């Protein structure tokens, strides 16, 4: 039955219905491009895959123990990749230079190396702070701030050019000029600014320039996947939808208030009384930075250790991961293997994936052993562990330790992707892009690449926006969601538009000379709803339809 279900899944992959993209002809509400796939039988696995990309998920990647394709290569590339991914970790601000992280996470500062590469970095962050302050103050200084940003951009600073592109595109402190905004993004993207590359890719996607879009999103998706392997802030947190239709999404927002959440207080009380499950959950909050908590490896380690003393097997597995990563402790693969083995003996089958990973890499064991690695991956996969399926997929894709079988690799990737693993989505995107293992389909490849690309460290904008919103700093939240909206995030587009509709003048929407006029605010809200509707947001589609029907938009 299992094999039959997988075969059905593969057979009907072309039947996936993605959100329709429409022509860019303004005002043509009926001009719709035919969906890239036809058919009515959408298999359950792939249906859940698509739903997982649009629902609010707390965490999209749950394990460190994933092989890359390079891990199974026998070349100099392997050695370089191993040094990159296993011997070092890299901060998100290094992966995404120019990130606003130092503004919204005061404990983060720029390294001397970064400043040496870009002497303007301190000046750039100074002016970003001024921009954020100007938004909070109602935009009284916004023209002066925009002028200062323009002067830094004129020196060739790519981050300032990207920011200036954002200001022109939105009409913040400058007369709105989308062509000029895109020009600055082109300059910044050409010299490596990731966020401007996202703007460029999204522009091609909206204009249905499919050959360009697939190439641009492929590059960005690869950068995002690489960040999963080397970031010390792994994994990825999904953006949160702050509204449910016209109303605030109170249930979702309540879960992101950190220690102020009543449910957390109850959970902590249970943990203090010796409840091992509660200890494990609190450890997860700190380890992954969930529910409004900042990542704190030392606190996570403390709570997991307490849970382990009570015999909690999931905490044993996570201690194995912590020692493999060196997250808050000295990296120790021997200890990692010990904890993973203890967890597996407690019938916690996902720990088998970690053990298989260590054998595949030769960490904490006498030598690499692909036969044993495969056996452990299969044990994990038999219990529906996504990591086990993904790693088996990599082995079959590369033909290492097994006979090469691209079709079988694809099947394993599909199952892993349906558990929300972005690196599995990336593998499927490449198959659709290249036609290896799946029928070539550039539209599907682009859509999957886009999903993966949006899970890179630049998605931290969403966390800061949500934190600002929960603090009542509506102007900051709107600014951050607006920045994300320009990068192509549908959730940010609808969140920013909803803030404009809900809060009106209190949204602190900043226009050319200060606070937005009613006309500027209405036009900006409509543009954001329109963009969200083109990415499948039904509520946004109903609003834009109503706006045209009632002739509210000129």
Structural account:
The protein is an all-alpha fold and 554 residues long. Among the domains are: 2-51, no CATH class; 248-402, Tetratricopeptide repeat domain (Serine Threonine Protein Phosphatase 5, Tetratricopeptide repeat, Alpha Horseshoe); 484-549, no CATH class. Helices cover 62% and strands 1% of the residues. The chain contains 29 helices and 2 strands. Strands 1-2 form a two-stranded antiparallel ribbon. Helix 8 crosses helix 9 (158-170), helix 20 crosses helix 21 (386-398) and helix 22 crosses helix 23. The radius of gyration is 24 Å and the shape is globular. Residues 1-61 and 75-88 have low confidence and may be disordered.
Question: What is the secondary structure topology, with strand pairs?
Answer:
Layout: H1 2-11, H2 44-52, H3 76-86, H4 92-95, H5 101-104, H6 112-117, H7 121-136, H8 142-153, H9 158-170, H10 178-190, H11 194-206, H12 210-230, E1 243-244, E2 247-248, H13 250-254, H14 262-272, H15 276-288, H16 297-309, H17 313-325, H18 333-345, H19 351-361, H20 370-382, H21 386-398, H22 406-417, H23 422-434, H24 442-453, H25 460-470, H26 474-487, H27 490-503, H28 518-533, H29 538-549
Antiparallel strand pairs: 1-2
Helix pairs in contact: 1-22, 7-8, 8-9, 9-10, 10-11, 11-12, 12-23, 12-24, 14-15, 15-16, 16-17, 17-18, 18-19, 19-20, 20-21, 21-22, 22-23, 23-24, 25-26, 26-27, 27-28, 28-29
Family: Belongs to the sel-1 family.
Subcellular location: Endoplasmic reticulum membrane
Keywords: Endoplasmic reticulum, Glycoprotein, Membrane, Repeat, Signal, Transmembrane, Transmembrane helix
